Recover the amino acids of this structure.
């Protein structure tokens, strides 16, 4: 039996809980996985812990009806009011799902959550770009030193396996360049502008559709892509970078005329994040709007869809395209990591 604690219980955390409730029997049949969500701690929605496992349907009812998990029915072993750190350190959880809000300036509180979990010999699965973009090497080394698992697939392109696919399935190739459309909000805005919608109306629709970050400055100024480029450089190219060192230009300065001028030349304006291996082993990175010729593989990627292109020395270019955001899609990224956590545990025991 694997015990899970959810740290943060917004849309993504709730989506993961729904997936577990719905697929528990299948996960058990297919992978021998038995799962209990034992604890939830959220800054705004309160906390609840039962070492025997919480009833997920009841838990979701409470949070969706009352906006808090603290209306969960009392019981002999039900404890309420634990802080996030108390939940991480003192409960019977084996895996911490860290899905608190992203602060990429300090990485907090997610950074501390990860470190304290590792020190307590607990595995962490997160969709939070902050700690991974800021401290990839430190956190992966810490997890390894404590013999625990650290999963962060959802930090780049949500559940589309932009990290694990190249690391596992393309293993053996040298990846010489990675470029991609890594932000749904900006791609949606640019695609809408191609149809004649104004920048402001397209941004408002991206907010309504839930693609945009809480502060869309992160999207439109390219900061969200910059953090993802830092994660790609660290995780896939082995070159940890300070995201602040990545040159970054967003789309807020683009006008309807710029978009039209590209179309007139049969080109598409796209916000591209790029990491390119240099002859001395270092990498060159960029985040900027680029004009792509109509036959470029990324030119046909429209709307909120993301895509990433890996140039491999043995296989040539490989492109992966899919969702880059969304409640269920990002909740699914936690499931992919969780299944790989189970494989990691089996290897540890072998
Ligand atoms: N705001 C991001 C996007 C969500 O639009 O792609 C995922 O990081």
């Amino acid at each position: 039996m694997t015990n899970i604690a959810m740290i943060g219980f917004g849309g993504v955390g709730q989506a993961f809980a729904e997936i577990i409730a719905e697929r528990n029997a299948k996960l058990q049949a297919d992978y021998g996985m038995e799962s209990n969500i034992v604890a939830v701690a959220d800054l705004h929605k309160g906390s609840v812990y039962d070492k025997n496992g919480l009833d997920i349907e009841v838990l979701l009812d409470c949070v969706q009806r009352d906006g808090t998990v603290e209306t969960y029915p009392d019981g002999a072993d039900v404890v309420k009011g634990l802080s996030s750190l108390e939940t991480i350190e003192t409960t019977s959880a084996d895996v911490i799902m860290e899905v608190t809000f992203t602060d990429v300036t300090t990485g907090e509180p997610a950074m501390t959550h990860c470190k304290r979990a590792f020190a307590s010999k607990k595995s962490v699965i997160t969709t939070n770009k902050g700690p991974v973009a800021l401290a990839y090497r430190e956190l992966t080394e810490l997890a390894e030193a404590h013999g625990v698992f650290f999963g962060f697939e959802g930090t780049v392109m949500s559940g589309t396996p932009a990290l694990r696919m190249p690391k596992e399935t393309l293993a053996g190739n040298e990846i010489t360049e990675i470029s991609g459309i890594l932000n749904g909000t900006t791609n949606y805005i640019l695609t809408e502008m191609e149809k004649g919608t104004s920048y402001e109306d397209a941004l408002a629709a991206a907010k309504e559709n839930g693609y945009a970050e809480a502060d869309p400055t992160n999207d439109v100024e390219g900061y969200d892509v910059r953090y993802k480029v830092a994660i790609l450089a660290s995780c896939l190219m082995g070159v940890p970078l300070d995201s602040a060192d990545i040159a970054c230009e967003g789309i807020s300065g683009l006008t309807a005329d710029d978009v039209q001028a590209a179309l007139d030349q049969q080109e598409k304006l796209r916000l591209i994040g790029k990491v390119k291996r240099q002859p001395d082993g270092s990498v060159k990175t960029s985040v900027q709007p680029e004009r792509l010729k109509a036959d470029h593989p990324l030119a046909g990627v429209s709307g909120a869809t993301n895509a990433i292109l890996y140039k491999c020395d043995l296989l040539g270019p490989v492109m992966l395209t899919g969702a880059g955001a969304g409640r269920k899609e990002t909740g699914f990224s936690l499931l992919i990591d969780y299944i790989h956590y189970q494989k990691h545990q089996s290897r540890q025991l072998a």
Remarks:
- The first strand starts at residue 2 and ends at 7.
- Residues 2-160+328-349 form a domain with the Rossmann fold fold (CATH 3.40.50.720).
